[in-house]
Specification:
Elements: H1 2-13, H2 20-47, H3 56-68, E1 72-74, E2 82-88, E3 93-99, E4 118-120, E5 126-128, H4 135-151, E6 158-165, H5 172-179, E7 191-196, E8 204-209
Parallel strand pairs: 3-6, 3-7
Antiparallel strand pairs: 1-2, 2-6, 4-5, 7-8
This protein binds zinc ion.
């Protein structure tokens, strides 16, 4: 699955997999051990997509899992936005971001876990709803990274700053999250990572270093 690659890239970013062969082996092993639950998480997200601005259940699932992992979770940031922090001593603040909304697209993949969800359309009638843009993969990558990093706290130092953004497809929530204090109430990040779908697999992770880092 695509998210396996992304999780390993994020693990490398924070140095979990970058400490030689032993480090790589260790994080690959850890990832294998959480893979079945990540796969189930992905399938559930794919089956239950929610349109932009309606990510109530999706955000609750993310918040609940992150809380169980020991993150300090704030919900309702600019709509259904979720912000989660894990402070682990002195060090850089790493920001990882995902989006949560799906598209008004009817799924015709025929997959056993295809979405059968429908919602009222903007112009009346009913529309199919599908994670046709890969936000389910992004959420799973973020959750995999968050899980791995929480389990391996003895191997890194700093602060993890996770964002789950609602209404990305309509752009509405970016401003709402900023207005809700995303970068004023929460720690200043020194590195940020977000995912984009490349034309060819695997999706890559963009790593940006802010000038202050
Ligand atoms: Zn998208």
């Amino acid at each position: 699955m695509h998210f396996k690659h992304s999780v390993m890239m994020i693990a490398s970013l924070v140095g979990l997999a970058g400490n030689g062969a032993r480090g790589e082996e260790l994080s690959a092993k850890q990832l294998d051990s959480i893979y079945p639950e990540l796969d189930a998480f992905y399938i559930d997200l794919h089956r239950t997509p929610e349109l932009s601005g309606h990510e109530e259940k999706t955000s609750a699932k993310i918040a609940e899992r992150l809380r169980r992992l020991g993150y300090q979770v704030t919900t309702g940031v600019g709509g259904y936005g979720v912000v989660a922090l894990m402070r682990n001593g002195n060090g850089p603040t790493l920001l990882l971001r995902t989006e949560m909304d799906a598209l008004p697209v009817q799924e015709k993949t025929g997959l056993p876990y295809a979405s059968k969800i429908t919602a009222p359309g903007k112009e009346g009638g009913t529309v199919g709803v599908m994670h046709a843009c890969g936000h389910d993969i992004h959420m799973t990558s973020l959750m995999g990274s968050a899980t791995l990093l929480a389990k391996m706290k003895d191997r890194w130092q700093g602060t993890l700053f996770l964002i789950s953004q609602p209404a990305e497809e309509t752009v509405a929530a970016a401003e709402a999250m900023m207005k809700a204090g995303l970068f004023t109430k929460f720690p200043k990040r020194s590195r940020a990572s977000s995912e984009f779908r490349a034309k060819r697999p695997p999706p890559f992770t963009m790593i940006q270093r802010s000038p202050s880092a």
